[in-house]
Design goal:
This protein is mostly helical. The protein is about 50% helix and about 5% strand. The protein contains ten helices and two strands. The protein has a two-stranded antiparallel ribbon with strand order 1-2. It is globular.
Length: about 280
């Protein structure tokens, strides 16, 4: 069964998460006790053992009557080409069947609570812009109310950091990774919709897979096992993802071959911009 580009397997150093998307399927409610006054977030290195999100080991194969396998939405149409291009940008360790990138040299990665809060704030800068574009521009109307929206939950989480740990929201500067990426996607949304869709797909879908694994690990290390709203969705997130996959497939039917190629070619850029934001966790 084909893997999702935002999924991986085997043991993977947390540093590699900041270069390529990772999987994970963790959900729950925000919880955990408040830290004692003056407590400093634990600084730690970590190696994660990860199972492929949506792999045969964790999900039964879809079958129709007569035992024939039914293709999941992610394996249909143009979205499958987007998936395959993204898979090639993973390492063999992350994606044994389809990864093609060499593994980066292992380096220590020390996450901090302040860095994690900055990651959330920088991420929100991008989601704010993308969700405003979708709300205001008619060509993206089909993506409205997708169920994947993250700006609202992030606003709640950033406020929670202040009330729980006394950390003030960091200033998101114009030259920071969040606003730099936000300007990029805003320009593409106005001038080149297929490449905008590439960023939309990779940014949102990566968060539902590898993003959740990162969130789970940061919860254990930094947040007394609390699960942020950022990693919780109303309804069935898999249904939301399949709905968006179908929307992209329908939209791509109207694109020229050259537009489709531009969309696929933009994948590496989407990895690079989002990777810059994730690096904030250890800064």
């Amino acid at each position: 069964q084909a893997q999702d580009p935002h999924q991986c397997s085997k043991k993977t150093n947390i540093k590699m998460f900041l270069h390529k998307r990772l999987p994970g399927a963790v959900s729950g409610q925000r919880g955990g006790s408040l830290p004692p006054a003056g407590r400093v977030a634990r600084r730690s290195r970590a190696v994660l053992s990860v199972k492929a999100f949506g792999s045969a080991a964790t999900q039964p194969a879809s079958e129709a009557e007569g035992g024939k396998r039914v293709k999941p939405e992610k394996e249909k149409g143009f979205i499958n080409k987007m998936r395959m291009v993204a898979m090639k940008l993973h390492t063999k360790e992350q994606a044994p069947k389809e990864g093609e990138q060499p593994a980066p040299p292992p380096r220590p990665f020390v996450p901090t609570r302040e860095g994690y809060l900055r990651f959330l704030a920088e991420s929100k800068a991008v989601y704010d812009v993308v969700e405003r574009i979708v709300a205001e521009r008619d060509e993206y109307a089909a993506f409205r109310n997708s169920g994947l929206e993250r700006a609202g939950p992030l606003a709640e989480d950033i406020a929670w950091f202040t009330s729980t740990y006394g950390l003030q929201p960091p200033t998101v500067t114009e030259d920071g990774p969040g606003m730099t990426y936000a300007r990029k996607v805003a320009d593409l949304a106005a001038t080149d919709p297929p490449t905008f869709i590439c960023h939309y797909y990779n940014f949102y879908f990566a968060h539902t897979a590898g993003g959740r694994m990162i969130g789970s690990k940061m919860s254990q290390l930094l947040l007394d096992s609390a699960t942020l709203k950022f990693y919780q969705w109303e309804g069935d997130v898999q249904e939301h993802l399949d709905k968006v996959r179908k929307t992209i497939n329908d939209l791509a039917e109207s694109w020229t071959d050259e537009e489709k190629q531009r969309c696929l070619a933009e994948t590496e850029q989407s990895f690079s911009y989002s990777g810059g934001i994730m690096k904030c966790i250890g800064m």
